[in-house]
């Protein structure tokens, strides 16, 4: 539904992205993986329409992103950034309610605001945090509140929508990580196109329908986890030995000796 | 999805914005009534009744109440109206700039408008009689406000140009450009004061302290248009400013053209503040204190903070002006002194409170 074709982006004489083509499909979790500085976040920003590529184009349902009114775009795709702060004191509930802003002027949807907010809070398990001040929440709790905001944004009008998340598990504990990954699977099951930047390759293998592996701005591989997370490929990218755990399928683990001081 | 249907009212709460704004309107109207009825010259209830009856065309004004009619209709009414509109403009512009810059200390001074207006006003006072002799004669009492208005807009324009790098207006760059423009305008103002004579220095001092003593009816429509309309425009920016609470990228993700919002907000705030200070001189703290008070009491949503700041900003300036002309009667305190006397300690208290909350 969101497709990038031949994306190039240069900055300071260096190619941040070089000839990347990628498609987000409804009902699918697409993981962006790769080392630090590979261009994952930049690619996410380009797919979100936030950054304009130097060459190539991104389309939503065949129409280039710049041709969409930002409000119509906002009704079809939501973004959960890495570090989202709030400038002034706000209740968690009011932060989630900001997700409904794009639906202003859509009478049928604004009538459902309360319902959409409550549903999003329940999905992100932040209902109990709703009456608390955003500033008093822990990093992981904030992350989930902003996830709820993104979900509230996409709750409406019954059209296929896209959710983009940049390292959403970064500040979550093991329990909430698992809950988030399961939630992403559920959302894809409902027809959402999900794009998620992950560093943890085991998480990637668990949640992904497809993995896009980036290195220095180039798309090395894009396909099901057993293809894109091939141990030989990962060893080339990360410079560390990987192996698949027998009996668990294509879940990459660091091989024995990978962390031996040398 | 099911949870939502069971307990939506409990989870979401009741939107109290309309009630708070209705309360703000009551406060403003009460302040305006006090501003018209109270003051150094006492108006008897009989006098008030006679003036009202005359104004409504119910009865002719008895000669005994001519003085009351003049005090109410000619002196106080336009003064209170100007204070209400200009205070509303300062309050809304302050709230909008804080939202735009995502900074609780932002006020319209940051976009250079006050410093630019002051520079132009001082230039008009110092050079008015000589350099612009002909124009000054034609413009009369309008020369100083016109100069201050244009000076404020010019400074903001300069700041916006300086803050714009490659078509993108970075908030940090804009803040630094504002600091630079403020410093430059301040230095030039200092130079002009250095060359001014004693009477001009006195005029300059009183202008920079602010006063509504010069209020006249013919100024009311001008201020209503140049301050009132931009204030309404700022209030209409509540949703994009709400989105900006999360940051610029997030505001775009939520469907807003951030560059357009920035340009429109800065332009409207500059017009409202420049036109306001043009008629009153510099008035500080209204745009800083009122939005903070509202955020503290009722949260940071701009659908409440923006119109609320307009209503309470108007009320604060009307009451400050009432205090300014009553406290030292028959002399008048500069109204900027009164707003700062109320505002500065209050602001210090806010800072202490915020520091305490973070500790």
UniProtKB/TrEMBL annotation, chain A:
A GO MF label: ATP binding
Q: Which of UniProt's keywords are assigned here?
A: ATP-binding, Nucleotide-binding, Translocase, Transport
Quote the InterPro entries the UniProt record gives. AAA+_ATPase, ABC_transporter-like_ATP-bd, P-loop_NTPase
Domain ABC transporter positions: 2-241
The free-text function statement in the UniProt record for this protein reads: Part of the ABC transporter complex HmuTUV involved in hemin import. Responsible for energy coupling to the transport system.
Q: What is this protein called?
A: Heme ABC transporter ATP-binding protein
TrEMBL record, chain B:
Protein name, as recorded: Iron ABC transporter permease
Q: Please state where this protein is localized.
A: Cell membrane
Kindly give the Pfam families that the UniProt entry links to this protein: FecCD (PF01032)
The record's section on PANTHER family has:
ABC TRANSPORTER PERMEASE PROTEIN MJ0876-RELATED (PTHR30472:SF25), FERRIC ENTEROBACTIN TRANSPORT SYSTEM PERMEASE PROTEIN (PTHR30472)
Which residue ranges run through the membrane?
19-38, 80-101, 113-134, 141-160, 172-196, 264-292, 333-351
The reply to whether Transport figures as a keyword in the UniProt entry is: yes
Task: Please state which protein family the record places this protein in.
Answer: Belongs to the binding-protein-dependent transport system permease family. FecCD subfamily.
What keywords were assigned to this record?
A: Cell membrane, Membrane, Transmembrane, Transmembrane helix, Transport
**Membrane topology value:** Multi-pass membrane protein
Gene3D superfamilies referenced in this protein's UniProt entry, alphabetically? ABC transporter involved in vitamin B12 uptake, BtuC
According to its UniProt entry, this protein's organism is: Falsiroseomonas frigidaquae
Source domain of life: Bacteria
């Amino acid at each position: 539904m969101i497709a990038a074709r031949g994306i190039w982006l240069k900055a300071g004489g260096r190619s941040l992205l070089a000839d990347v083509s990628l498609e987000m499909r409804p009902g699918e979790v697409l993981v962006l993986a790769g080392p630090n500085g590979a261009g994952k976040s930049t690619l996410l920003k380009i797919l979100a329409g936030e950054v304009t590529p130097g060459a190539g184009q991104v389309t939503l349902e065949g129409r280039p992103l710049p041709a969409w009114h930002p409000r119509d775009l906002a009704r079809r795709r939501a973004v959960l950034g890495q570090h989202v702060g709030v400038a002034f004191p706000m209740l968690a509930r009011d932060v989630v309610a900001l997700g409904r802003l794009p639906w202003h002027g859509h009478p049928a949807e604004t009538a459902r605001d309360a319902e959409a907010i409550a549903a999003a809070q329940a999905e992100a398990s932040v209902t109990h945090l709703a009456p608390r001040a955003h500033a008093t929440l822990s990093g992981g709790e904030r992350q989930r509140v902003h996830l709820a905001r993104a979900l509230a944004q996409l709750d409406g009008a019954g059209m296929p929508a896209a959710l983009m998340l940049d390292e959403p598990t970064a500040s979550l504990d093991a329990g909430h990580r698992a809950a988030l990954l399961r939630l992403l699977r559920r959302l894809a099951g409902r027809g959402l196109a999900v794009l998620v930047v992950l560093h943890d390759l085991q998480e990637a293998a668990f949640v992904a329908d497809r993995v896009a592996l980036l290195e220095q701005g180039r798309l090395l591989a894009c396909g099901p986890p057993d293809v894109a997370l091939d141990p030989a490929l990962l060893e080339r990218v990360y410079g560390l030995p990987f192996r698949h755990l027998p009996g668990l399928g294509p879940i990459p683990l660091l091989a024995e000796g990978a962390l031996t001081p040398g | 999805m099911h949870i939502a249907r069971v307990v939506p009212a409990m989870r979401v709460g009741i939107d109290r914005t309309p009630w708070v704004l209705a309360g703000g309107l009551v406060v403003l109207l009460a302040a305006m009534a006090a501003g018209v009825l109270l003051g150094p010259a006492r108006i008897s209830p009989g006098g008030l009744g006679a003036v009202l009856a005359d104004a409504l065309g119910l009865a002719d004004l008895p000669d005994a109440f001519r003085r009351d009619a003049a005090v109410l209709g000619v002196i106080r009414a336009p003064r209170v109206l100007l204070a209400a509109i200009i205070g509303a403009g300062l309050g809304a512009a302050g709230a909008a700039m804080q939202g735009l810059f995502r900074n609780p200390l932002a006020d319209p001074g940051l976009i250079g408008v006050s410093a630019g207006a002051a520079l132009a006003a001082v230039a008009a006072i110092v050079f008015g009689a000589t350099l612009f002799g002909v124009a000054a004669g034609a413009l009369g009492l309008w020369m100083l406000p016109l100069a201050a208005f244009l000076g404020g807009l010019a400074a903001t324009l300069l700041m916006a140009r300086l803050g714009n790098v490659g078509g993108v207006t970075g908030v940090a760059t804009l803040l630094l450009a504002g600091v630079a423009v403020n410093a430059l305008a301040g230095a030039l103002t200092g130079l002009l004061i250095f060359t001014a004579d004693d009477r001009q220095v006195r005029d300059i001092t009183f202008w920079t302290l602010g006063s509504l003593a010069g209020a006249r009816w013919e100024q009311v429509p001008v201020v209503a248009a140049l301050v009132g309309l931009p204030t309404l425009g700022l209030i209409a920016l509540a949703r994009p400013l709400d989105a900006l609470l999360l940051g610029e990228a997030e505001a775009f993700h939520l469907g807003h053209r951030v560059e357009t919002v920035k340009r429109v907000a800065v332009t409207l705030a500059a017009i409202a503040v420049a036109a306001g200070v043009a008629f009153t001189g510099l008035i500080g703290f209204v745009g800083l204190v009122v939005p903070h008070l509202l955020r503290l009491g009722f949260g940071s949503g701009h659908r409440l903070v923006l119109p609320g700041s307009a209503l309470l900003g108007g009320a604060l300036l009307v009451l400050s002006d009432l205090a300014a002309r009553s406290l030292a009667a028959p002399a008048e305190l500069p109204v900027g002194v009164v707003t700062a006397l109320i505002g500065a300690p209050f602001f210090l208290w806010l800072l202490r409170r915020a520091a305490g909350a973070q500790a």
